[in-house]
Design goal:
Layout: E1 23-26, E2 29-35, E3 42-49, E4 54-57, H1 64-75, E5 83-87, H2 93-96, H3 99-106, E6 109-112, H4 114-125, H5 133-142, H6 146-154, E7 172-173, E8 179-182, E9 185-192, E10 199-204, E11 209-213, H7 235-246, E12 255-258, H8 267-288, H9 299-303, H10 309-328, E13 332-336, E14 342-346
Parallel strand pairs: 4-5, 5-6, 6-7, 11-12
Antiparallel strand pairs: 1-2, 2-3, 3-4, 8-9, 9-10, 10-11, 13-14
Helix pairs in contact: 7-8
The chain binds zinc ion (2 copies).
Length: about 350
């Protein structure tokens, strides 16, 4: 089948649930939304009915507002039953922010990939008052302008613990190929990668539901970025590998609940587009670096829109990831200029 034969994306539940409300996507499967102070606006969380208690998939950030929302959700759609298990799809703060809160308040177990557990626990304990040397070196190599760099060096950076509750020791490890029972269904576990390392996706064996976290989003491409903690990584290669591996699982009748935006059908089309978007972006980038460029000089071919301050960091790490991929597969060269920034050029 060619991509044009796939059904277009459809959004069957157009209204985002309000605080204290849930949408029943299927029997025993509730969709709720938690607020975010970011352009994404909200994160989707799923509650799976286990009879005496709930399994949550992802939690939102830990803020005063989130705690208030959760109290409304617990007494409202969750009917006062406790949360006995939280499954984290991946380690990002909008997903793991309230895990520790549920562990301490409800005695919930934390189910996660080993990478998610280790990274989230490490990051929540790692409080920084000023940017690390590794971060400054990475921003320099990305070509961040001197003025912006100097300003950032004086500022307290974004800290994971600002929006993530302390996460206690201990988790139940989730691995590729396992089957998890929750919400009256068996779920096949398939690990994503690239947006976040060892990212859990859940595929129901008993009906048509897929809980995809940020691995598969409708209408926006998940951020793929190189981070100071692993500056030589090639997350785009990992992303493309995961997409190619997950694509054959996709069915037209699948209802997908991603980490952001609305639940949708049209997964075969979406998988094809997610892969194609990056390949066309890489081709535009190849043209753009026929003359040497730094990463921050490569926003226009990738994003085709103005990059405002609030998304500058996301754009920078994504541009860097695309350039690094071209370098790692031998399609671009990389040399340091006098300012300590990498210049990337098509080969
Ligand atoms: Zn994420
Ligand atoms: Zn997210």
């Amino acid at each position: 089948m060619s991509p044009s034969d796939h059904a277009p994306l459809k959004f069957h539940w157009p209204d985002v649930p309000e605080p204290g409300e849930a949408v029943e996507i299927a029997d025993g499967v509730l969709w709720m939304a938690m607020p975010l102070d970011s352009p994404l606006k909200w994160i989707n969380v799923v509650a799976l009915d286990d009879g005496d208690s709930w399994t949550l998939v992802d939690t939102g950030t830990h803020t005063k507002r989130s705690v208030g929302y959760w109290e409304l959700n617990l007494s409202g759609p969750l009917k006062g039953k406790p949360v006995s298990r939280v499954i984290s799809t991946h380690h990002h703060p909008d997903h793991v922010g309230m895990v520790g809160w549920f562990m301490q308040k409800h005695g919930a177990e934390h189910w996660a990939s080993r990478t998610c557990y280790l990274l989230s626990r490490m990051l929540v304990l790692d409080v920084e008052d000023r940017p690390t040397e590794a971060a400054i070196r990475y921003w320099t190599r990305a070509g961040m302008p001197a003025e912006r760099l100097a300003q950032r060096m004086q500022e307290r950076p974004y800290n994971f613990s600002d929006v993530v509750h302390y996460i206690p020791t201990g988790h139940i490890r989730i691995q590729q190929g396992e089957i998890i029972r929750a919400g009256g269904r068996d779920w096949d576990i398939h690990m994503g990668n690239g947006h976040a390392a060892e990212h859990v996706t859940m595929w129901s064996r008993d009906d048509n539901l897929v809980i995809a976290g940020d691995q598969i989003l409708p209408t926006i491409s998940p951020n793929i970025g190189v981070q100071p903690a692993e500056p030589e990584a090639d997350p785009l290669a990992e992303w493309l590998e995961a997409c190619e591996r997950l694509k054959p699982l996709a069915r037209e009748d699948h209802v997908v609940i991603g980490g952001h935006k609305l639940p949708f059908t049209g997964l075969p089309r979406r998988m094809t587009d997610l892969i194609a978007n990056h390949h066309t972006g890489l081709n535009r980038l190849m043209d753009h670096i026929s003359e040497p460029k730094t990463a921050v000089q490569c926003f226009s071919p990738l994003f085709k829109r103005e990059i405002v301050d609030s998304i500058y960091g996301l754009a920078m790490v994504e541009a860097y990831a695309h350039l690094q991929h071209l370098y790692k597969i031998g399609r671009a060269s990389r040399t340091l200029n006098d300012d300590g920034a990498y210049l990337w050029q098509a080969i």
